[in-house]
Specification:
The protein has 488 residues and is mostly beta strands. The chain folds into 2 domains: 1-19 and 403-488, Immunoglobulin-like; 20-402, Neuraminidase, CATH 2.120.10. The chain has 1 helix and 39 strands.
């Protein structure tokens, strides 16, 4: 029996390695213990040395703490560290980035202080130099703009420069009707420069900043509502220490934009924007980019048009492709969805599903495969989970060499009841999914009519013995497999 089980595991590994491209295995990053409340947001960065860094926010009884955890190859996830703030009112954006050397960590967050007339939001910053053991050396947090109330912020790095962009909380700042609404501040070789303020002519929010790794130019995105009827996204390029005129990247449409961010493709230097657009009934993820001629291209739909609630997109670039993750509700289940593509041709899939997921983030790793984190409600309280993308050719994927066929199952491992099976196909046709045991015998079979290229159904695993099974999806000439572990 042991030899058959070993053989089946090997077969399953071959099937997954050669035929299946997807995410996994999933790992729980944060744990229980004294932290008895659910995580509310998380961000991730991965250094050139392969070290992973996660910062997350976890409420307490009367406050909110900011915590950091790191992953070293020799130790795994260890050494939780509490990032100190002036008060426990740590709300709003939470951002992280790495130096140009790919090791030092830069973290910024919003802290709400008590004021006479109202709360006073400020953006704070700290830096960490990682060590081989422990949590590294953290600097004393500083307030980046003490005399301005900030609303949102983002942070980016290029070589020895750290850049932070702000939208200013204009409605509670003194003289709000005449103040600029975008702030920008740089740290050059360890020295913070005076802040710059940019008057864009109307209220702005939703700031995002990204660095071009080719030449160090910075791109600052901000959202605005100049006409009081819709939210547009503008992008300003900073060249040789000066901002160029703002360009309209997303707007002039009849669909309201809810959120947007900018990232730069390191292979081309083109800035890309992902955003959520929708209304009171549904929302979707869209993408655009600025080409070599300086023209912003028409928006393309990234998310599944059939899923009514997609939000919170984050983007990165890995082995020549753009990757987007977002929080999705398809009408029956919650999950973290993803898309990979080349500017306007997207292949969709799921990082995870079937849980109360949210707040995803995604970054490339030194192996040039993306790593994603998200908040997962499969346990109570909710925790931060992570997963690495597994290329379809055993980790040696080349640009554009990703499979359009996949099968994913949740939960995996499974204990009892029904397992959700999600699949993605390049075309519509009938399919059959079969569960094979250690002897290769079919123990469950499910057939699905030709309805969609991608959807989900469930298989009952009650009564199956504990062990490793292979789920084989057959659709026409397509044959995709994935292992399923059943526990008791």
């Amino acid at each position: 029996m042991k030899s058959k089980l070993t053989m089946l595991i090997a077969i399953a590994a071959v099937c997954v390695t050669t035929l299946w491209a997807g995410w996994g295995p999933e790992e729980q990053i944060t744990t229980g213990g004294r932290n008895v409340r659910s995580v509310t947001s998380c961000v991730v960065a991965v250094g050139n040395n392969g070290y992973k860094h996660v910062v997350y926010r976890r409420p307490k009884t009367a406050s909110v703490d900011i915590w950091y955890e790191r992953w070293y190859p020799s130790t795994g996830w260890t050494s939780e560290y509490n990032i100190k703030s002036p008060t426990g009112a740590n709300y709003g954006p939470l951002t992280i980035t790495l130096d140009g050397n790919g090791t030092d960590i830069h973290v910024a967050w919003d802290c709400w202080l008590s004021g006479k007339e109202s709360v006073i939001p400020r953006t704070y910053y700290t830096k960490c130099v990682p060590a081989k053991k422990g949590t590294g050396t953290w600097s004393t947090p500083i307030c980046l703009i003490p005399d301005r109330r900030t609303a949102t912020h983002d942070v980016a790095c290029y070589q020895n420069r750290v850049a932070v962009a702000f939208s200013l909380n204009y409605w509670i700042n003194p003289g709000a009707e005449t103040e600029p609404v975008i702030g920008y501040k740089e740290c050059i070789a360890g020295v913070w420069q005076p802040p710059e303020y940019i008057d864009v002519g109307f209220h702005a929010s939703g700031v995002s900043v990204a660095a071009d790794p080719q030449d160090g130019d910075m791109y600052v995105l901000y959202q605005s509502d100049p006409y009081g009827v819709e939210m547009n996204a503008y992008v300003m390029r900073r060249v040789n220490g000066a901002f160029q005129a703002a360009e309209l990247a997303v707007g002039e449409g009849d669909i309201y934009m809810q959120e947007a961010s900018v990232e730069v493709d390191p292979s081309t230097g083109f800035p890309h924007v992902v955003c959520t657009r929708g209304d009171d009934t549904e929302s979707h993820i869209w993408h655009t980019y600025r080409d070599a001629s300086g023209v912003w291209q028409p928006l393309t739909l990234v998310s599944d048009e059939a899923s009514p609630n997609s939000k919170s997109p984050r983007m990165c670039f890995s082995y020549g492709s753009a990757w987007v993750v977002w929080d999705e509700y398809d009408g029956s289940e919650y999950g973290i969805a993803y898309a990979v593509g080349s500017y306007d041709n997207w292949t969709l899939g799921w990082v995870t599903s079937g849980h109360d997921d949210g707040s995803p983030d995604i970054v490339p790793t030194p192996g040039d495969v993306p790593y994603a984190v998200w908040i997962d409600g499969r346990t109570s309280p909710a925790h931060v989970w992570g997963s690495t993308y597994t290329p379809g050719d055993g980790g040696q994927a080349q640009p554009g060499a990703l499979s359009q066929s996949s099968i994913e199952m949740f939960p995996n491992p499974a204990k009892a009841g029904r397992v959700t099976v999600r699949y993605s196909l390049p075309r519509e046709e009938p399919l059959r999914v079969t569960l094979l045991d250690v002897s290769g015998r079919a123990v469950r079979t499910q057939e699905v009519a030709a309805t969609d290229k991608g959807r989900s159904f469930s298989i009952d695993v009650s009564g199956l013995n504990a062990g490793v099974y292979v789920a084989r999806l057959v659709a026409g000439d397509l044959n995709v497999s994935k292992s399923l572990v059943v526990e008791r």
